[in-house]
Amino acid sequence: MKKISILGLCLLTLGTAAAQKSLVKEVERDMKSNPASYPDQMKKLAPAFTDAESATDAFTWVVAGKGAFGYYDQQSVFAQMGKDVNKKQLGTSVIEGYEYLTKALPLDTVVDAKGKVKTKYSKDIYKQIANHYNDFNNAALFLWEAEDYPDAVKAWNLYVTIPDMPEMVKAGVKAPADTLVAEIMFNMGIGNSLSQNNEAALKNFKDAIARGYTKKNAFDYAISAASQLQKPEEMAEIAEQAYAIYGKEDSRYIGYMVNNLIDKKEYAKADALIDKYIAEDPNNAQLYFVKGVLCDSEGKPEESLAQFKKALSLDENNASTLMQYGYKLYQKACDLDQTEGGGLSNADYNNFRATKVDPMLKEAAGYLEKAYQIDDTMSDARQVLRSIYYNLNDEENLKRVEAM
Fold this sequence. Notes:
By secondary structure, this protein is mainly alpha-helical. It contains 20 helices and two strands.
């Protein structure tokens, strides 16, 4: 059997390591002379990222990181000059520069003759990142324009978290104003929403609000994200914050609070809450609408009707209230027919229908017709109208509704 030369293996290993080191230096030279070659040079450098020797050498990652920032420096100038640039690549290069350089940090150790551990590149790494700190925000904007929302969020996340790193502060990074950070967190929430990452989006919106971004859309988007995640408790908490600022403008927030209590069957708390707000704002139609929904949930149909009617007296063109009031009238007519219409002679039943049930059905139809006229997306209103006209033997209106 042929013996394998250990010396030969050692020479082979050394040769491979030397080749990778040579490759890294070659890439470094090429990117210094031509920063635009960065994307192609990273493909060329790929073997060095996985080779056992070069992948554990800080120099490999330093070269890649500096190349990424060098590419950004050149291409961002071209962008400012109005030249056509790859905005996605431009934005991504800033993120990659950070990631490459931070991979170098734990590998950056040099042991001197006395056995003391020192660093060779770390100081420059922190300086490189610090010098490009504001570019993380710019990179996010480039990525947003390229509709790469996940990476835009990643760039913004680095922009808001880098100032929390002591080494970055020492390197000269200054945290932006809270107002800017709050706005960026809101933008991150939008980006995560567009990427269907509602968990992250909810956190972003809540963080933005906590930082002082209290525009109405922050609360609305936060509630929407919580709704997508089916978190009624979160919806209610956010709605309570929003109601304190925008309750006079938008009373729907009270609905989220009450619905949460209804879901938990905490009706006494829900009643106390809505009554408190009604006492503070007695001419707010939306509050009576919510009260009507609450009464219906509590099994109080007559009180529910009264609350919807009160809401309509304050806002006669609210489609949701018209729908609910019409539907409750329809239910009342059906219940009346079931409870009092049985056992009657044909003549008595016909009189009963003509004097009690049918007038109520026709009244309900009027409210539902108006609701659908205001909002033709209300398919439930059309469905109930169909049932009403069928019960009234009103063939003309039945065909009209079915054709809607």
